[in-house]
Amino acid sequence: MDRRGEVMASTGMGNVSHILATLHPTIGYDTEGAHHHTAPFARYGNSPGADRAVLDAAIARAHVGGEPATEAEQREH
Question: Which of 8, 26, 43, 58 sits at 20 to 30 Å (Cα–Cα) from 37?
Fold first, then answer.
């Protein structure tokens, strides 16, 4: 189910990003339309798609975390 454009959540991520490298993507997996924070949604949490989403997020975070280590200006900051 395509959920682009739906209101999902809000965070204080902008404040954090002024201090350190951040990543705030929307990474999802197929839940056949089950809504967040419901028992039907929870049943998809151990699916292959959920596992792939966790790995995708970890890889993306590793890329963001590497930036401060490889750029002189970021190391100085």
Answer: 58
Residue 40 resides in a domain: yes
Please give the backbone phi and psi of residue 9, each rounded to the nearest 5 degrees, phi first: -170, 175
Is 14 contained in some domain? no
In a domain, 15, yes or no: no
CA gap 28, 4 in Å, rounded: 11
Check if the beta carbon of residue 32 is closer than 8 Å to that of residue 61: no
How many domains is the chain partitioned into structurally? 1
pLDDT digits (tens, 9 = 90+) for 12-31: 777 777 877 777 777 889 99
